[in-house]
Give the backbone structure.
Amino acid sequence: MSRVGIIGIGHTRFGRRGDATVQELAFEAYREALVDADLDPALIEATVIGAVPEYHKQRSVAGVIQEYLSLTPRPTWLTEAACASGSAAIRSGWLAIKAGVHDVVAVIGCQKMTELETAEILALMGRVGDVQWESVFGTTFPGYYAMFTRCHMHEFGTTEEQLAQVAVKNHHYGARNAKAMFQKEITAAKALDSDSVAAPLKVYDCCANADGAACVILAGEAAARRLGGARTVWLDGMGCASDSMSVLRRGDLTGLPAAREAAAQAYRMAGVEAADVKVAEVHDCFTIAEIMAYEDLGFCDRGEGGAFIADQQSYLAGTTPVNLDGGLKAKGHPIGATGVSMTCEMVSQLRGDCGERQVLGADIALTHNVGGIGQYCFVHVLRRD
Amino acid sequence: MFERFGRISYCAHTKVEEFVRHLESGRLMGSCCAACGQVTFPPRADCAECRHGEFTFTELNGRGTVVTHTRIESAPAGFEAAVPFDLAVVDLDEGGRLLAGFGATIAPADIAIGMAVQVVPRINEETEESQVDYTLERPGTGWTKSDLP
Ligand SMILES: [Zn+2]
């Protein structure tokens, strides 16, 4: 089976980017990826854009970005899978190369979330669930994850202190990432003292809306060897699964079944096990989401996620270091960009370019990108030969 | 008609909109597949089991158990004046699940996973076009039923 490689990466600073339009953000990431790959843009055959349309004033951003990148009339299209749109775009580019239609594809995840008014954000937030049977009662995004949290606490004894420890870890590493939105350490006491958003989740259990973009350049195996050489990182395991929009049709509320399914697919395709993963990026939109991810991905047993962070097993020196770039929590979460951003970070780790955050000898890495409250999940296993 | 369901509506039209008239009459209805008899809550027009497209409404007793819950402090649009408020996911004894808020018979401090609740249909007459929904109440809480409006 022929492989698909990543030959270039680019990443903007995440945060409030009132200085740039969405296409300007996309360009920053694209230019950096071209420089990183030392690639002639004439070789790019198509672009795939990962973004969530309802946050942008500009409609249909793929075409607008393609124009700004001066890549017309080459093909471009948008992929949408809520907060997993970036990984959906990578899968779409991977599929195009696997199908033999394209050989070199630029994938750009981007999102401007801070151009909406607060009232518009609240209205959007009111429609994250099933609008027919759930939103009418005032559900919110944190509210759903809060209900997962309650189940996890009830079933396994997970504590608010353990949730806070996830935030402490991710801010610890965010403070060491020059592109993160929040580059400041926090204490567990500060997290535990923060205001309740949807009990038992507090302000410091939630990631922040951000603006930003990230880009990866994908190539078929022969092209990747020619253009990327030994720095190429391979997309060897590509898992993807879905689940119900409504929590009313979920049997289990202590984890995300779509994540377990996507992980099983990715491990099988890559021929690896959870224990082989040297470093991972997981979707910590809320602290509980990172704890559930440890379990869903098999980094620890079901119910052991709270102990996993309490024992610092997801720190740089632990058994499976997770979110060493600060995660969504400290790096920020421009929803369309996130999956591509995770991928850039894993490529940097596999190349050995992460400085004080580097996992020594990392050869197998994983990304876990969740859309909505688990309606979509993409798990990708990356490898450097 | 379905825009009358809930405090705020994003969904005016559905094949199961008669649900609202039944709720107004004091009856919580699930759907029953005309082909295989599968009973579903929330009701759906198209059977998830056999894909048949005809159904009848069937009344549920509304007794259930809290699966999980949260207290919303940061409100979405339309609920600004209501915060804080508690929500729960409830497994119905007769099958199916619903999500709802709590009524006056249950104190917030008493809400817990595993507690028994009664789903009670509500008509809110304050709004111009009467709005209907349901609340979670203590088991044994009564309410009146009327003929279909
Ligand atoms: Zn049926």
